[in-house]
Amino acid sequence: MTTVPVTVPVPRFGDLLAAEWLKLRSLRSTYWALGVSTLVVIAFNANAARADYVDYPHYNTVMRAHFANNALFDAFTDGAALILILTAASVGAVTVVGEYSTGLIRTTFAAVPDRRALMSAKAAVVTAVMTAYGAVVASASFAAAQAILSGRGLGLSISYPGALRVVVASALLAPVSALVGMAMGALIRHSATTMVLATGLLLLLPTFVTERYRWTACVRNALPFNAWGRLVQVNYGRMPYTLAERYPTTVAGAWTVFAVWAAVAAVVTVVAVDRRDV
Amino acid sequence: MPGTRRPRNRGPVIEVNELTKRYGPTTAVRELSFTVQPGHVTGFLGPNGAGKTTTLRMLLGLVEPTTGTATISGHDFRRHPRGLRHVGALLDAGDVHGGRSARAHLRALALSNRIAAGRVEEVLTEVGLTGAAARRRVGGYSLGMKQRLGIATALLGDPPVLLFDEPLNGLDPEGVLWVRGLFRKLAAEGRTVFVSSHLMSEMENTADRLIVIGRGELIAAESLEQFAARGTAPTVTVRTPDAGALAAVLASEGAVVAPCDEETLKVTGASASRIGELAHEHGFLLRELTTEHASLEAAFMELTADSVEYLAGDSR
Prior knowledge:
Helix content of chain A: over 70%
Radius of gyration of chain B: 24 Å
Helix content of chain B: 25-40%
Oligomer: heterodimer
Largest interface: A-B, 42 and 53 residues
Low-confidence stretches of chain B: 1-8
Order of helices and strands of chain A: HHHHHHHHHHHH
CATH superfamily of the largest domain in chain B: P-loop containing nucleotide triphosphate hydrolases
Number of strands of chain A: 0
Strand content of chain B: 25-35%
Number of helices of chain A: 12
Largest sheet of chain A: none
CATH architecture of the largest domain in chain B: 3-Layer(aba) Sandwich
Strand content of chain A: under 5%
Radius of gyration of chain A: 21 Å
Number of domains of chain B: 2
Strand order of the largest sheet of chain B: 5-6-7-3-8-9
Shape of chain A: elongated
Distance between the termini of chain A: 28 Å
Low-confidence stretches of chain A: none
Number of strands of chain B: 13
CATH class of the largest domain in chain B: Alpha Beta
Distance between the termini of chain B: 48 Å
């Protein structure tokens, strides 16, 4: 039927990865979002270490005896984790919603009608970039906090039991959040709504759901932020001055939460756009 | 562009068959069927809201038809893993990310379809986006520059089929001339060029065939000449101090005469030369004798008058 011959090279997934990588790094907003949040997250954590450094002379003997808990907490604070989640979810969401809100998605899908392959490449690139970002931010935060505490001889090395888990869990929180942002972007396809709902799901829900009942504790433990909290609490259940959890969770359970959220989000991202009109 | 393309047979390339698209209670396209041949520029005409854009999006697999099929070269477009070498399309000049430069936009598209980076520079040069313009962020472009970028995108894969949705919007007169020449060149190379517009005047000097739709339904599919012949017969304007008497003479010869004012008559059914002869025979003084040929625009307006979706309140 074709009247003009067309020669087409065998399609390669690597081509799509290269294209999506170029798309991500050719936008200034990517640099701003990642650059500013890197500095803010490290500053938050360094400041927590500074506060401990300053307050240490006023701590009682029990607090001093358990100071390693503080040193690990300062390595990546809750506030820093919230900023990391917000940044990662935004960057992830924007890679999808940015295409829909501008209309670029039609140009993209006309160039690559295999939408699933395209979205898989997008998710892979975002996962890689956000993992690198998370690794940089978490490592730098750990190094900064421990360097400050070393001024009183209190800094921990990465070989301290549980220290590496704090860094790895904090680093991986970035790609997990980014994939959730992408999935919500793919489902909602509207910038503002996506950001509000992603923030609600990742940041606000953990503060609303209590651990009072078994089922609410289950929901709570299944949220990425709480899973991260479990992973970075190296002396979980053995901390002084804290209540024991009524429905405790495990390290393996927390890693599973990370994995399941990432996998489900990636699948939703790929499948959600496949049959819908653009 | 390398290589010459000669169509080996003249079968249709674009085939739209009983295509229907409904959005809830609204029917955007209704049982639309037509074909488009290679080697021609085919105009796709209709008033605003006629369903042109929806049809083009269904051809590209962006919008799923409710019923019916829309194929290019015998295939559902979505069967191709990569599209740019099969069909080049400019759907909306705004379908770009304003934060990227034209070059980055085209490079990413080229990478995804394994098209060499050199081809990006070729198309940028071809559409006249060179130097600083190619490095600027697209958000700062005028509509005309965005149209040029959209045309560059369509040309990127050197495809045998090209779809353009309202490509002349926002272009300056030089740009319009250039685009017309480009379309004719692409068609002469044996490619299928399908161009939508809501203005007949844009198609008049560009297309050799027309598909006309209104309210989602096919109104006409024919050559430009056939289409022009649909227009009303030529009208002759006659100005004479003695209009009443001349009107009587012309009417007795079988012409249809409509008086405009006390000096002017609009005559159909008699040629200017015949009217001149009659005036001479009967001794009338003529101050004006002009023939107005029916324009394609008029034929288009007449044909689509019943299917105009959005009509300005006081326009008729």
